[in-house]
Amino acid sequence: VQLQASGGGLVQPGGSLRLSCVASGSISSINHMSWHRQAPGKQRELVARIISGGSTNYADSVKGRFTISRDNAKNTAYLQMNSLKPEDTAVYYCNANLMTRSSRTQSYWGQGTLVTVSS
User: Fold this and answer.
1) 8 and which of 65, 71, 99, 113 could share a cystine (Cβ 3.0–4.6 Å)?
2) Are residues 79 and 19 in contact, defined by beta-carbon separation less than 8 angstroms?
3) Which residues pair with 45 in a beta bridge?
4) How does pLDDT run along the chain (119 residues), one tens digit per residue?
5) How far apart, in whole angstroms, are the C-alpha atoms of residue 91 and residue 48?
6) Helix, strand, coil tally for the chain in percent (to 5)
7) What's the pLDDT score for residue 52?
8) Is the CB of residue 31 less than 8 Å from the CB of residue 98?
9) Residue 20 half-sphere exposure, CB side, CA atoms within 13 Å?
């Protein structure tokens, strides 16, 4: 199983970016997908999570600005980030908790994509 994250880049304050995370490999079902971020010198933190039924939860710092969604048919999660602030600058990682075709439930991480918010 592999997770491929993409969509990071440099954006000005107030701008938008959309991150994508594609899960591939021997996947039977995905329980939930989430986005986390780690800024320099800080611990990795949960940004947003979406479970298989579509329920979502967000870090307080991104509520109202970020939206997580998923396309179950494509095993893909998205993070739409609007009204970006310099403090959103971080490496963003996607995570999937899934069941493999060999009936193992395990959590997988993507490689991270850098988001830089700066003028």
Assistant:
1) 113
2) yes
3) 37
4) 999 999 999 999 999 999 999 999 999 899 999 999 999 999 999 999 999 888 999 999 999 999 999 999 999 999 999 999 999 999 999 999 999 888 889 999 999 999 999 99
5) 14
6) 10, 60, 35
7) 83
8) yes
9) 7
Report H helices in 1-119: none
Contact 100, 26 (CB under 8 A): yes
- Let me know: does 72 contact 51? Beta carbons within 8 Å: no
Q: In one letter, which amino acid is 74?
A: K
Six token digits for residue 14:
């107030």
73 three-state secondary structure: helix
